[in-house]
Specification:
alpha/beta, Rossmann fold
Length: 348
């Protein structure tokens, strides 16, 4: 029996299972699906690749069914009519964003068909996913896409469960919170199913069985997502207002150029990035070419963004923030930078 057949058999059993046995079936199902998405062996037949070199300050993956307006959105944002897999556009803040069109994600990727493995592998490298939907039939499209993305191990707008798991020669189970969505017996049985008899497990939040399995599998990706509803000119104002109030949502009309600038601003916000301006001694800050980094980045990240030789030879930096302190301060390489900081780096 092949892996796909095993998956179908388990899915049929899930409907009849008790809560305890359901946990075991979910663990088996997750393991088989992970095997389907593993890279094909080098000795196997060559497939159609979908590897795209990462470029720019961040990577955004665009996912949606045909005829939702993806091509129109791509041409509007990137000012190009080409049909490449990867595009690049610049935000109002000066960040260079790589935009990937992932057409194959809905073509049986979770069943390992077609270019499923390559497309999923590329999608997991994205810093943000845009799920593009037709506002006139959005609910069914959204449901199907969420099911497919969840099946391939992509968790949208979720945080990694606060669970510490380590293999040991001996081990134990510790939970610092009361578990209301699963129990110790289910967790121990799932561990046994993965032949993990000696390990330390510390659970620090009230997780579900599915979330514990995600931790065990270890290949899940937790990626922020924006739901982009296109063609809002074809629905009522009441429907537009309802959609616009939904979390992680932007409503647009590519045809009428409605809300596209706001979409770009939301992409920047969801990426969670900061702009850092560099300044040479005696010069004015370079405000036209900022270094774009993740929130929480340090002076060391700024050094690497300028040139990889700066960090090993770092002496000190002068940092100035117009938001918090207008005066330059001497800071170390571990100093955390804020949005729109001005930084001068001095080397040995």
């Amino acid at each position: 029996m092949g892996i796909v057949e095993k998956i179908k058999e388990i899915e049929a059993q899930k409907n009849k299972a008790t809560e305890y046995h359901l946990g075991l079936l979910k663990a088996k199902l997750a393991r088989y699906r992970a095997q389907l998405l593993e890279p094909a062996s080098k000795s196997g037949p060559a497939g159609t690749g979908f590897d795209v070199q990462k470029s720019g300050d961040a990577r955004v993956a665009l996912i949606g069914f045909p005829s939702v307006g993806k091509s129109t959105l791509l041409s509007k944002l990137t000012h190009t009519a080409s049909e490449a897999a990867a595009y690049e556009f610049t935000t109002l803040t000066g960040a260079r964003i790589q935009l990937l069109d992932l057409p194959g994600i809905v073509e049986g990727a979770s069943q390992g068909r077609g270019r499923g493995r390559q497309v999923v592998s590329t999608a997991k490298t994205a810093d943000l996913i845009l799920v593009m939907l037709d506002a006139t039939k959005s609910e069914e499209q959204r449901r199907l896409l969420e099911i497919e993305l969840d099946a391939v191990g992509i968790r949208l707008n979720k945080k990694k469960p606060d669970v510490v798991f380590k293999k040991r020669t001996t081990g134990g189970f510790t939970s610092t919170v009361k578990l209301t969505k699963t129990d110790e017996k289910t967790i121990r049985t799932i561990l046994a199913g993965y032949k993990l008899h000696n390990c330390d497990v510390m659970i620090r939040e009230d997780i579900t069985t599915d979330e514990f399995i995600d931790v065990l599998i270890g290949t899940r990706k937790y990626i922020p997502c924006l739901y982009v509803y296109n063609k809002i000119d074809s629905i009522s104002l009441e429907q537009v207002d309802k959609l616009a109030r939904t979390p992680h949502t932007v409503v647009i009309s590519c045809e009428m150029d409605l809300n596209l600038t706001f979409l770009v601003e939301k992409i920047w916000d969801e990426l969670g990035m900061v702009k850092i301006y560099t300044k040479k001694r005696g010069d004015h800050p370079d405000l036209n070419d900022p270094i774009c980094l993740r929130k929480g980045s340090t002076i060391e990240n700024v050094c690497n963004g300028v040139h990889r030789s700066l960090a090993p030879n770092f002496r000190y930096a002068l940092g100035k923030s117009s938001k918090f302190n207008p005066h330059a301060q001497k800071v170390s390489i571990t100093h955390s930078v804020q949005d729109e900081d001005v930084v001068s780096i001095f080397t040995k």
